[in-house]
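Final paragraph of the annual report: two paired records, presented back to back.
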Amino acid sequence: MAVTPAPEARPRRWLGVLAWALWGLAMLGLAGAAWLDHLQRQAGSPETAWLLQPASVPLLVAAVSAATVGALVGSRRPAHPVGWLLLGLGLLVVANVVVSGYVGYGLLARPGALPAASYLAGIANGIQVLWLACVGFVVLLTPTGSLPSARWRWWARVAAAAPVLLVVLSAVDPQPLLPEHPEVDNPLAVSVPTGVLLAVAAVAAVIVLATLVAAAGSLVVRFRRARGTERQQLRWLAFAAALAAVALLVAAAGGAVAKDGVVLAALGTCVALLPLATGAAILRYRLYDLDRIISRTLAYGLLTAVLGLCYVAGSLVFVLVAGVGSDPPSWLVAAATLAAAAVFRPARRRIQAVVDRRFNRRRYDAARTIAGFSARLRDEINLATLTAELLAVVEQTMQPTRASLWLRPPAGHAARRSAIDS
């Protein structure tokens, strides 16, 4: 008998293909942007070719991260709008880079070398506003895919209209490349008073920026109202935001000591965290492992700091005792390493216990419950009491829906069964 597939199967399959096709288009756009960047360098205009410079690393990381997570969410949860917004974010970042490179080569490096470059000069500025608006809507609709409440609808309409208005104003700007290149004119320019144009653009820009702030505030509102799975999804976003804040602090510290590599790596990590956390929250991948991840991150971070301090302290003690010079011998390095290794296991156990007590309370309470039951087990001889305590320990630590214990009977006796339901 032939089986007819469900009506939803075909659209979902094609939406998955569409999502990954758009991802491939984004990666192809990055390759095209790199080629345009190379052409500008060959033409002797390195100041307009910025894609292959280290400063562009965070933007490229954001494009790849958003497009990849968006394609994954769009293919697995095609009805969820955040996946398509992330995919659009990645595509808009790539389009911004491609259009900027096209304009830079066709208008500045080699004027007239590419067709219609002057028409895209104003649009290149407006694309940046569009992907900023995408970021705001990603945060506003995560994790459920809908607005926090019906009261947000009017703001969502305003937030969607403002970037479109800014793109239109940028497209008709008479001098889109001011102040660096005032000689470049826009064939799409509209004779509108400059003061009016700037005033409307400023209002629209303020709305776009306010959207980002309002979207962040909506997460707080959601978290206060959320329960169960949605609350756990929002905790993933909060964890990513905390890590992003740490990455920003690392970037600021790297900039203070003139370490450009540290700054770029930290910024790249920062901009990649939001799409990754959003994808994990929506797809619910290892959703309830967050407490374990936080405790392990803190434990091993503190352990690394403790071992580093032990290594430095051991090296200083050996230097003072042995009286060696500034260049320590190999045996001194080996002794300090062995001392740090000896501290590793006891330090890890103690640090993990302290962190679990604060950040992974369920694991800590379960371990204490099992330890207490093990201590009582040595003194208890009543089988009925042991059975009841064993089932109670299983219920407290594992929290199953149903638990049963079968005792193998002696020959000629009926089997005994105890159970709990929760």
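The closing record of the year follows.
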Amino acid sequence: MILEVAILDIGRGTCDDFEVAYREASPIIASMPGYISHELRRCVEKPNRYILLVKWQTLEAHTVGFRQSAEYQRWRTLLHHFYDPFPSVEHYDLPLVC
């Protein structure tokens, strides 16, 4: 399992519109092969910042299966214009057992 982590900074004054668009886009990512789950959380200290956490079966399910799909184009159309600046995305391995 791979955890995708994206910090999303949303343009000032557009958070309500972003949340509406996210609700519309959410089923898109959930329908993709290799998808496990996702959640979006709003930052308490910076209300225009969100964190998107997506669990994928494999890295390729995200980087190839989703990002190279027609569905991703719809996701992009709905959400990308809200980002300021464009987010960095990182992928994390399985949790470590300490």
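The chain has three helices and four strands. This concludes the annual technical report; the extension proposal builds directly on these records.
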